[in-house]
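So, can you check?
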Amino acid sequence: MQLIQQNPDIHAYLASSEVIDHWHPLVQETADALWVATGDAYSYAEAAFEFVRDTIPHSADSGDPRVSWRASDVLGTRNGICYAKSHALVALLRAQGIPAGLCYQLLGDDDGSNAVIHGLVALRLPGGERWARVDPRGNKPGVDARFSLDVERLAFPVRPELGEVDHPEVYAAPHPATLKVLRESADRSELWRNLPTSL
């Protein structure tokens, strides 16, 4: 799939914000520690992906009722759903000068019902010609997402025959529909009831 850069200015994909707060000391400390252990952009990006995928449990897997949405809070609480984990990975990538944005899929149950928006990340290594998607959601039985810039290894390949959709846009900021539900939900059960069904 050809990814579409929603904002033509590549600098938008390096910017800090209230959500992608890569200026925050915890994000900076985490990024610096990962960089020291790697030392080049590709190795760092892979390490940051694996850090978010493996050390921050998806709250649906862990049962954690807290809702985090700011990148620094995701790192601090070690908790979040796909949108929140994507915010954390984007912040870590941007903290080391790697353009990164947010992507979305519409995914449903095995019969196509209960479709909701799923969040993931696109990155573009310095000197790279194209965006590549990765999914830091977190692996579990039946889910095996990997860091791969050539062939996508996402948590959930879409099934068009069930009405699932890969949205091609790479957003510089979280989509308003996903951010709204994160910010307005008191706990994960409320969040789960209100997940967006479209962008």
In short: The mean pLDDT is 95. The first strand starts at residue 4 and ends at 5. Residues 4-193 form a domain with the C8orf32 fold fold (CATH 3.10.620). Residues 178 and 189 are 15 Å apart (CA to CA).
